[in-house]
Amino acid sequence: MAGAVRCQARGAGLMRGLARIASSSLPIAAPTAVIGGRILQRSDFVTDSGFIATRQQCREMSTHVSWDYRGQRQMVPLGGRVPSMAVDAFVAPNVVLAGSVEVQDKACVFYGSVLRGDLNKIVVGFCSNIGDKCVLHAAASSPTGLSAETQIGKYVTIGNFSTLRSCTIEDEVVIGQRCVIMEGSLVETHAILEAGSVVPPGRRIPSGEVWAGNPARFVREVSYDEIAAIPRLAEGIREIAESHMGEFLPFTHEYQLKENLCGMKGEVVIAQLLLASLKLIDPLW
């Protein structure tokens, strides 16, 4: 018992020693730039793909303004391949649609996903949804001789962190999280693929069956209740996406200017005149 206690104490001391070594070996933040007469330390900076700004500036900026200038392009045309999405589709701001990608009505593509149609076409069908950080790609050709496009049917739910490449997913299918579906694969209507499953190239998942594993194998038949719940699941996720859509509307911020100016002591009249001159409010308001 005493030996075990001594080993634990020795291990804790070793971890503290490593922490001290790591902290002492880190370089001291040195001035990196001078902006407006102010010396900025390395820790003052926040680096993004499109801009470099101080933390104080980031705090002062409107959320929507800083997001608009994040430097990431959502729609990336590649030659003659141009992405498109329906007016009522939800595509998260940090999603990338590159090349020949079509997102149809009421479809949802959630945060961090990448759809690359640089070699072939990708279609996301009506009321289907793609979870966070998924990757959809389409190869130039398929080993099965079938179409190498990536086709997602209607009312399809694809779990987070999944990867699909040149496969066909028919209507009303559920694909669990972290699934991998390879070239030439076919997942038929009312099929369910459990989380973490891997579908090899050219594999067919028959209609009304549950498959799982690496490589994916038959588990059981899909029940009638599960079949009825598949479209309801897609519709429920669509309702959640609508609440996200409201946070990224292209509205302006004149109301914020009005509130900020009117909140200053003794500046209410000046604010009204300013907004009237900008034709943002009625002059007689």
TrEMBL record:
Q: Which domain of life is it from?
A: Eukaryota
What the entry lists under Gene3D superfamilies is as follows: Hexapeptide repeat proteins
InterPro entries assigned: LbH_gamma_CA-like, Transf_Hexapept/Carb_Anhydrase, Trimer_LpxA-like_sf
Membrane topology note: Peripheral membrane protein
Report the main location listed first in the record.
Answer: mitochondrion
Cleaved signal peptide residues: none
List localization entries: Mitochondrion membrane
**One Gene Ontology cellular component:** mitochondrial membrane
| Family stated for the protein in its record | Belongs to the gamma-class carbonic anhydrase family.
Q: What is this protein called?
A: Uncharacterized protein
Native organism is: Marchantia polymorpha subsp. ruderalis
